[in-house]
Each structure stands twice: as C-alpha cells, then as structure tokens.
Design goal:
With about 170 residues, this protein is mainly alpha-helical. It has two domains: about 30-100, no CATH class; about 105-170, no CATH class. The chain is built from nine helices and four strands. The chain has helices at about 1-25, 30-40, 45-55, 70-75, 85-100, 105, 115-120, 140-145, 155-165, and strands at about 55-60, 60-65, 125, 130. The strands form two sheets. It has a two-stranded antiparallel ribbon with strand order 1-2. Helix 3 (about 45-55) crosses helix 5 (about 85-100) and helix 7 (about 115-120) packs across helix 9 (about 155-165). The longest helix has 26 residues, at about 1-25. The radius of gyration is 20 Å and the shape is globular. It starts with a helix and ends with a helix.
C-alpha cells in the first residue's frame, strides 16, 4: 500500500512539475537565439537586418514586404514551423525591432557590437533601471551625452537595451 501511494505521489509530482515547466518555458524563449537558429539559415543572419530588408509596418501590423502577408498569420500558417510560444516571441521581437527604427544600428553600431551583445555583456536591470554592470552608471543619464543620441532618442534606446535583457532565455 505504501509503495502504491508513493508511486501515485510521484506521478502527481511529475504531472504538476511538467505543466508548470511548460508555462515557464514560454517565458524563457530567447528571440535572438530563436531567430538565429530557426530563421537565419534562410533569411539574413540577424533579425535587425531581416526587419529592415523584408518587413514593413502597415495598419498596426508587420507585413512581409514581398509577400504582403501579415507576419503573425504567415508564421501561424506554418512558415518556420514555430510553436505558438515561439511565434509570440518572434512577432514581439520583430515588432520591437521595427518600432525602434534601427536606432541602435544608426547611432551605436559604428563603435559597438550588436545591441544584444552589448546589453547582455555590459548592462543590468536594477529596480527597473538600466545600469552599467561595471560602472554602476544609470544608462538613461549616461546616454544623454553619449552616442550622438538626441534627448528624444534616449528613451527609445533605453527600451531597446532593456529588451535585450528582458528577452534573455534562462
């Protein structure tokens, strides 16, 4: 009797742990890694270049420049064979890149590597603020006098860099 209860408890634990892990998995998709592994082989190697070259914004949606198809619908129809969680992560990622207007590429890329590399190596989030990992400087203030950014561009850049940290898969 004791063995059967232990077996049942173990089965319940596996089911509960498995279902909570599935929910956590959706939150840990790294869209950079996903794009490079699943999309970059057929499209440009980096998502930023792909967005600039292949996607446009129309009526609040991201549309394929050549196909004229809405991105989410195109992916949901099977292009890329992504799961629902991966589609969600990819659409959010590509939309965010498109909304930023390639600001990092235009203003920062001349001196720095990709935004994702710079952010994940040099920056941290502390109480919701973007901080230099080693300098402990507030990046919002630092960027006001750095990188040829205007005061109007700083909030967009801070959002771009924060997103690199928030989308880091665990």
């Amino acid at each position: 009797m004791s063995h059967s209860r232990s077996f049942i408890a173990l089965c319940v634990l596996v089911v509960v742990t498995g279902s909570s892990s599935a929910g956590a998995l959706a939150q840990t998709i790294d869209p950079h890694q996903l794009y490079e592994q699943r999309c970059g082989g057929c499209h440009t190697p980096h998502a930023g270049d792909f967005v600039h070259e292949s996607l446009i914004r129309s009526n609040g949606s991201i549309i394929g420049r050549k196909s004229g198809k809405e991105l989410r619908a195109f992916l949901e129809a099977g292009h890329g064979k992504l799961s629902a969680d991966e589609i969600e992560a990819m659409v959010a990622h590509l939309t965010s890149i498109q909304k930023s207007g390639r600001l990092f590429h235009k203003k920062c890329r001349i001196c720095h590597e990709r935004a994702v590399t710079l952010a994940r190596r040099e920056l941290i989030l502390k109480d919701g603020n973007l901080i230099g990992r080693y300098s402990n400087r507030d990046m919002r203030q630092f960027l006001l006098g750095h990188g040829r950014l205007t005061a109007d561009e700083v909030p967009t850049m801070v959002d771009v860099l924060k997103r690199q940290l928030k989308t880091l898969g665990k």
